[in-house]
Amino acid sequence: MKPKKTRNEADGHEGKPVSASQSEMNEIVLPAQTNPLGKLLGGHVMHLVDMAAAMAAHRHSGSYVVTASVDYIDFRNPVGLGEIVILKSQVNRVFHTSLEVGVEVYSENVLTGERKHTTSAFVTFVAIDEHTRKPKPVPPLIVKTDEEKRRFEDAGKRREVRLALRYGKK
């Protein structure tokens, strides 16, 4: 017996593995990006998170994407002046026209090599057709590892909460 096709597979989209979306970006923290304490501004971290997440969403969807929601952002440790900020992103789950991307941010001390996990975030994007500018279907996500499966399930739970809050449904 063949497994039931997902809506996207029925639309002719082949799935892509999580690894196809994985993205990483690095940046050194300069004085103009810091607060009076010499720490990277939270708003700048949020900007970088959105950019790193968009890269993963673009890679998976093969299309333009727009940010629809930031469900969660947690600042754990500050990033200091002169440190390298490292952002890692990947698609956690695909819905029909939207997808959730997880982003982890790390700081690296250039003198000692010490790395700290500084920020985590979940960002939802909607894929946009380049001609109609309307939402378009996204290829399904192929999850393989236990960690990918856990992220997939957790993303579904976050979506339920997000939609309940947005539309007042329980």
Main pleated sheet: 5 strands, antiparallel
CATH A-level architecture: Roll
Q: Tell me the number of strands.
A: 7
Helix content: 25-40%
Which descriptor suits the 3D outline? globular
Helix count, DSSP H or I runs of 4 or more residues: 3
Spans where pLDDT lies below 50 across 5 or more residues: 1-10
Instruction: Work out the radius of gyration.
Output: 17 Å
Strands side by side in the biggest sheet: 2-4-5-6-3
Strand content: 25-35%
For the record, what CATH class applies?
Answer: Alpha Beta
The overall number of domains is 1
Describe this structure in words.
This protein has 170 residues and is of the alpha+beta class. It has a single domain (10-167), classed as Thiol Ester Dehydrase, Chain A (Roll). It is 27% helix and 34% strand. The strands form two sheets. It has a five-stranded antiparallel β-sheet. The chain has a two-stranded parallel ribbon with strand order 1-7. The longest helix is centred in the C-terminal third of the chain and has 22 residues, at 146-167. The model is unreliable at 1-10 (pLDDT under 50).
Provide keyphrases for this structure.
five-stranded antiparallel β-sheet, 170 residues, 27% helix, alpha+beta, Thiol Ester Dehydrase, Chain A, two-stranded parallel ribbon
